[in-house]
């Protein structure tokens, strides 16, 4: 019986992969006209496509693995990260998103050049490419951990196979394929999350029982004696997620939008999806802590990462046959969206901010068609490097994925991005300010990791040693607090050293801020691109809905079949609306 069940899961995943490959071919022509089309869809995408890709960029397999493991052990606290994401997208809707689109660039480092000059463009190009590769490696590793548990396969082999699939879509169809697959993947993630959450609530007896029967304090979690630590964690998460989502580098999410209004709407959509998801995603892990308290021991080969497989344990024990396949499809979806966006963005940075300036210094120019071919080659090479990075992280058994992700983000990502957020408000800074801020920030990260540790801090304020969990949270608070006040403060203070006479980028900076505040209005020929997007995606979504409907053929109880019918009707309905709207002139 177990063998037959797995056969159905394999069929579901195979169908999903065929669909993703189909998206690559469907949007290939839309990305083959120019490098601008390849890197950001020529800035012609509709708000619901841009909003779904902005949402999916913050949603990787890590959400279903590392974050789910944290929810299983610590209760509600994991939601703080995702509620902070929601806050960041609210700020995007209120201020940032439309202005990012108004920078009118194809890659984020071109915006850095306009604001800070060529020197900083080069510095950030190399730094951001390296960091993005490391980050994508963590995402792919998270997927490998989960997938290998499902198939009882070697994690290394899983990482290689799934990584190459992501590379295929990214190389073939550029930003159009990336964003189109993100929209499809948003639908997969939404239906599987809602289905699992509903069944989990029924199993434990409703929301009240979920909170009251949770093994430890639902809000505080175990090994947490100081509520103030949770408050501090949330406050600094708000600052951290604002810094890491709304900055000139991550502005690439909104560069795809067809105009300022669509960029603004896209951030609102991402905010709504993230706000709802912040709770829905974690209902199954919370329920599992009640239903299967020893579940984490089911996969001892993962060491301390065993809790990261909790979603799989819940789905196998509770959900109808075929759901594990859908869940895996959602995980592939989440990781593909993060990784293919990373590859696409990195390729744009390498071509526009490293290769082209290198050629110009030698008095050479390369036509756009050759650059387009080079972009595809570089996208492929970047993908191989990400796979290598994921294989390296596989060897770090003693770190949980949640802690690995949070530590890397707080130590490296935050200092790297602080100047790219504050530079939008502090206009008069010397040209050394951005890179000097990053170097200071990395020193602060080292200081807070090895010298001013949580237990040193505990001695200063005269309290006993922190528990392991308190120490982890306290380390995040101390590191992020130091970055906000010291690293951020340093960047602001550099304006005291600004001398207009020595600023050889002042004309470009003035033009940058003029464009930054000038709305983008869609081109006259935009209607045909709108219709193409709706028509192509409408067809693909309806095919996916039909595929999910066919899952009623899998031997399951009636309630299980009804879940698949409901999911299929919702997805098919969305596909039908898109298809129909493409015919309205």
Automatic annotation (TrEMBL):
<keyword id="KW-1133">Transmembrane helix</keyword>
<feature type="transmembrane region" description="Helical">
    <location>
        <begin position="46"/>
        <end position="69"/>
    </location>
</feature>
<keyword id="KW-0739">Sodium transport</keyword>
<protein>
    <submittedName>
        <fullName>Na+/proline symporter</fullName>
    </submittedName>
</protein>
<keyword id="KW-0915">Sodium</keyword>
<dbReference type="InterPro" id="IPR038377">
    <property type="entry name" value="Na/Glc_symporter_sf"/>
</dbReference>
<feature type="transmembrane region" description="Helical">
    <location>
        <begin position="537"/>
        <end position="554"/>
    </location>
</feature>
<keyword id="KW-0813">Transport</keyword>
<feature type="transmembrane region" description="Helical">
    <location>
        <begin position="6"/>
        <end position="25"/>
    </location>
</feature>
<feature type="transmembrane region" description="Helical">
    <location>
        <begin position="560"/>
        <end position="578"/>
    </location>
</feature>
<dbReference type="GO" id="GO:0006814">
    <property type="term" value="P:sodium ion transport"/>
</dbReference>
<feature type="transmembrane region" description="Helical">
    <location>
        <begin position="476"/>
        <end position="498"/>
    </location>
</feature>
<dbReference type="InterPro" id="IPR001734">
    <property type="entry name" value="Na/solute_symporter"/>
</dbReference>
<keyword id="KW-1003">Cell membrane</keyword>
<keyword id="KW-0812">Transmembrane</keyword>
<dbReference type="Pfam" id="PF00474">
    <property type="entry name" value="SSF"/>
</dbReference>
<feature type="transmembrane region" description="Helical">
    <location>
        <begin position="432"/>
        <end position="452"/>
    </location>
</feature>
<feature type="transmembrane region" description="Helical">
    <location>
        <begin position="309"/>
        <end position="334"/>
    </location>
</feature>
<dbReference type="GO" id="GO:0005886">
    <property type="term" value="C:plasma membrane"/>
</dbReference>
<keyword id="KW-0472">Membrane</keyword>
<feature type="transmembrane region" description="Helical">
    <location>
        <begin position="123"/>
        <end position="143"/>
    </location>
</feature>
<feature type="transmembrane region" description="Helical">
    <location>
        <begin position="186"/>
        <end position="206"/>
    </location>
</feature>
<dbReference type="InterPro" id="IPR051163">
    <property type="entry name" value="Sodium:Solute_Symporter_SSF"/>
</dbReference>
<feature type="transmembrane region" description="Helical">
    <location>
        <begin position="405"/>
        <end position="425"/>
    </location>
</feature>
<feature type="transmembrane region" description="Helical">
    <location>
        <begin position="371"/>
        <end position="393"/>
    </location>
</feature>
<feature type="transmembrane region" description="Helical">
    <location>
        <begin position="75"/>
        <end position="96"/>
    </location>
</feature>
<feature type="transmembrane region" description="Helical">
    <location>
        <begin position="155"/>
        <end position="179"/>
    </location>
</feature>
<feature type="transmembrane region" description="Helical">
    <location>
        <begin position="226"/>
        <end position="245"/>
    </location>
</feature>
<keyword id="KW-0406">Ion transport</keyword>
<feature type="transmembrane region" description="Helical">
    <location>
        <begin position="266"/>
        <end position="289"/>
    </location>
</feature>
<comment type="similarity">
    <text>Belongs to the sodium:solute symporter (SSF) (TC 2.A.21) family.</text>
</comment>
<dbReference type="GO" id="GO:0015293">
    <property type="term" value="F:symporter activity"/>
</dbReference>
